[in-house]
Write a structure and sequence with these properties.
The structure holds two protein chains of two kinds. Chain A is α+β, with helices and mostly antiparallel strands. Helices cover 34% and strands 12% of the residues of chain A. A two-stranded antiparallel sheet of chain A has the order 1-4. In chain A, strands 2-3 form a two-stranded antiparallel sheet. Chain A has a two-stranded antiparallel sheet with strand order 5-8. In chain A, a hairpin with a 2-residue loop joins strand 2 and strand 3. In chain A, helix 2 crosses helix 3 (57-65) and helix 2 runs antiparallel to helix 4 (78-89). The longest helix of chain A has 27 residues, at 2-28. Chain B contains nine helices and no strands. Chain B has helices at residues 2-14, 25-30, 35-64, 73-95, 97-103, 106-109, 114-125, 130-159, 170-185. Chain B is globular, with a radius of gyration of 17 Å. Classes of the chains: A alpha+beta, B mainly alpha. The interface between A and B is medium-sized, with 16 and 19 residues.
């Protein structure tokens, strides 16, 4: 009998001592944490993407709870998160506009000429250091998918050597913007449908020689736009999304088809 | 002093916990992707193996052996390790927040690191005295950290090299680990 009882008692006693010790320690050495931190943290998406400027959702939650950070910094969560955070913090929510990333280039394989066959590491950064990449256009998409890899949300795809953003999945965290060595990805309001998908700053003829769908800076769209939303600088048109009313007149007059219409999603 | 040196060299090089004993291979492969995380994990392991060596020694010689319960050492040691790691976490959080933040997730992970249990069992198997058991625990942790650091350097290189598709990921890591293990075999020839 004792052959079984003693070991059971010994192990159980050991467990009891450690258990009590831990219980005691957790009370004695308790670190007071602001309950708001965990409440805010719970509301956040938990993607830890760092788009808010903090190292992760935990750090951001701490800053918000301490009142050091605005509640509108999380682009991933969008309005829902801001509303729930406002509830937790007891402040009024202000809507932020939903943004999406857009790759300002249309130079897929069928559109842009190729300078040379690239046979190195499949990475935009590496490819771009070699004579600006295999694409003839030094400004356009390198097409190795570094932004695709950088995206935590699977919102980018590579189609015929050109990166494209899937609006529905994009959370506007900005990771791809940093990843792109050509810096041709930018955040635009999700409601704006028209974008000049070209970043080439060369003269019209030069640009057109390299890419079928380059913006040649002809200025037709600028003249056509009734809201003066388009400016042409360095032979490349740019739409001011605050002034743009999505009328679509620019698209019709563009001779090279560099302006693209995005179908808005809800 | 000579004994301490002997234990140190044995624990770090000759009987390295990962490369010769094949313990703690899971964290060895898991957190050796980057040097910074490898060092974080290594630091946490050194800390825990040292403390665990002391406590398990006491549990074995003051409780299990007098009661003739040596066959319970595995379960008793696991109990000790699990609660000790918890305790260390609580204490660190209270008194050394910077260290707690630096060790972060690695501290609770150590609970399931078999290298820690391995050290406790080796201490008993070798019948080390209390002081030497603590030294052995510390040095084994150092050996673990050393290998982790070496391996993270190699893995950072592998990351950028052209690995055949069939070997990518954990396969090439295991092959590389085997090669380091063979390299460490050379230390067994040390005449001590």
């Amino acid at each position: 009998m004792s052959a079984i009882l003693i070991p059971i008692l010994a192990i159980a006693g050991l467990g009891l001592i450690f258990g009590l010790g831990l219980a005691f320690a957790s009370k004695k050495f308790e670190v007071k944490v602001d309950p708001k931190i965990s409440e805010v943290r719970e509301v956040l998406p938990g993607a830890n993407c760092g788009a808010c400027g903090y190292t992760g959702c935990d750090a951001y939650a701490e800053a918000v709870a301490a009142g050091d950070a605005a509640i509108t910094l999380c682009p991933v969560g969008g309005e829902d998160v801001i509303n729930s955070m406002a509830e937790v913090m007891g402040i009024e929510a202000k809507a932020v506009e939903k943004m999406v990333a857009r790759v300002n280039c249309k130079g897929s394989w069928e559109n842009v000429k190729i300078k040379f066959d690239y046979d190195g590491i499949i990475d935009c950064e590496s490819a771009a250091t070699l004579y600006g990449g295999p694409s003839a256009c030094a400004y356009g998409c390198v097409g190795m998918g570094t932004c695709v890899k950088a995206c935590n949300f699977g919102a980018l795809v590579l189609e015929n050597g050109l990166a494209k953003v899937i609006d529905e999945k994009c959370s506007a965290c900005g990771k791809c913007i940093e990843a792109c060595p050509k810096r041709i990805i930018e955040l635009v309001p999700a409601k704006s449908q028209y974008t000049v998908l070209c970043s080439n700053l060369e003269k019209g003829g030069e640009a057109k020689k390299k890419c079928e769908v380059a913006c040649i800076g002809c200025g037709k769209c600028m003249k056509e736009c009734p809201f003066e939303a388009i400016t042409v600088k360095n032979f490349c048109a740019k739409i001011d999304y605050e002034k743009c009313k999505n009328c679509g007149k620019c698209l019709k007059v563009c001779p090279t088809n560099a302006i693209h219409k995005f179908v808005p999603h809800k | 002093m000579k004994e301490v040196l002997l234990i140190a060299i044995t624990a770090i090089f000759i009987q390295n916990i990962v490369l010769a004993k094949f313990l703690g291979v899971c964290p060895f492969l898991g957190v050796s992707r980057k040097l910074s995380t490898a060092l974080g994990m290594g630091g946490a392991v050194v800390f825990v193996t040292t403390v665990v060596s002391a406590v398990t020694w006491a549990v074995y010689y003051l409780l299990l052996k007098p009661l003739d319960l040596i066959y319970l050492q595995t379960i008793a040691f696991i109990l000790v390790i699990a609660s000790l790691v918890q305790f260390v976490e609580i204490v660190l959080k209270k008194f050394m927040p910077p260290l707690y933040k630096a060790l972060g997730i690695y501290l609770p992970l150590i609970t399931t690191n078999c290298a820690v249990l391995g050290v406790a069992l080796i201490n008993i198997e070798k019948e080390l005295s209390f002081g030497l058991a603590v030294v052995n625990g510390f040095m084994t942790g150092v050996g673990f950290t050393l290998v982790l650091a070496i391996f993270s350097g190699i893995r950072e290189k592998i990351e950028t090299s052209d690995v055949p598709a069939a070997f990518q990921g954990i396969s090439i890591a295991l092959v590389a680990a085997a090669l380091i293990s063979v390299a460490f075999l050379g230390f067994t020839q040390l005449a001590l």
